[in-house]
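Record pair follows.
FIRST:
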Amino acid sequence: MKKLLIATTNKGKIKELREFLSDLPLQLLTLKDIGETSDVEEKGQTYEENSRIKALFYSKKSGLPAISDDGGLEIIALDGAPGVHSRRWLGYKATDEELIKHLSKVAKSLPDNKRDAYFRTVISLALPDGKTRSVSGEVKGVIAKKPLKNILKGYPYRSFFFLPEINKFYHENQLSKEEQKLYNHRYKAIENLKPIIIEQLRL
């Protein structure tokens, strides 16, 4: 069975990517599975640049095809911030709790008619020979004035992200299995990436 490396240490992402790729005949490995502890600096100015940097780095290190994603929350009233700096919105790699505290202040200051936001992601597939392909996915919602009490570890902003179409928060405890796919930006990207994985890995 062909192997594919999920090049992230984010447990939430690993869980989602394992689930979303479960229908492909692949052995999905994590960095922990292969004993890879190296870190790579994300110097890119876009989601695509960062996802390619990570996927290429770990593919070449491991000799395996690898996927990595980069994305973030984009608040329209803030000109798309925090965007590519979502995890480092405070100027450093903040904890979930710190980011939620900061977004709580931002959420209270947004006018009722200017709360639109997007979650966007770009996922890149890299091969050890240096070849890469990238795809994207997005979901639109609004920033709630107050967050859900339950925090989804690794995804602090989802506690604020409300989906008016179904009157639910973008949180796995709120969404049905079907809704988790319909409204998941990473799932949409993976669905776009699957034909490329099948082609490139000759599944």
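SECOND:
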Amino acid sequence: MQEWGGKLKELIDLFWFKYSQLQYAVKSGDDLLINILDRDIEPVLDAIYREEANDSVDARLQFQFVLDLLQKEAGDVSSVLRQRDALQALADRYFSAGVGDIFEKPQVRQLAAGLQKGRVDEGFLNEAILDCMPDRIAVITTDYRYLYTNSVNAARLEERPMDLVGRHIVEFVGIQRFEERVKPNLDRCFSGELVDYTYSKDVGNRTMIVRCRMTPCVSSTGKIIGAILILQEIANRRRAIAA
């Protein structure tokens, strides 16, 4: 197996070079060349996904690459699903509990620094990326108000994203749930912890298991200004089987 080294940009450039060759082979109907390029391009793609970003520039390149490929392959369902999973994996890697010491690197921690008025001005985490995520994502300020929400989370709350900004989270979770679970976990996150917990809730006739991950949102000066929330909803399979 060939070992891929070098910088992320070199891998991405190599991928797009081989991708353009593959597109030409497809148009030409050259099955032999298509098979050869398919074998060549796959390890390059895997290497791009596996690469650990050393700074915000590499991380931004990774996210932008996946978005570009998602756009080009929009007509291919299997490719769209793969890129969606790749986006989720990158979000998990850089913004979720258990990602290792990558989040401790100052350059990567600062990726969350510019979250103001619902977007990141500097860094790769912007609305276009967040709205591609299949999970609910929000940013909550230290006074428990929405600073940002992606469209998936807003839809779950039956609101428009812009209408959530500035509103207190207690409006949507209720005072009891806020005091007993949400506030204590947010306070832990505001103190610098990476928080990861699950809970169940009823949606219609289904019981959903929700995994909530909270990551401190840090300003460029190193001050924690809020929490980045990623919520994943999973149907309760035990309840479904019992029914």
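COMMENT: Residues 1-6, 97-126, 237-243 have pLDDT under 50 and may be disordered.
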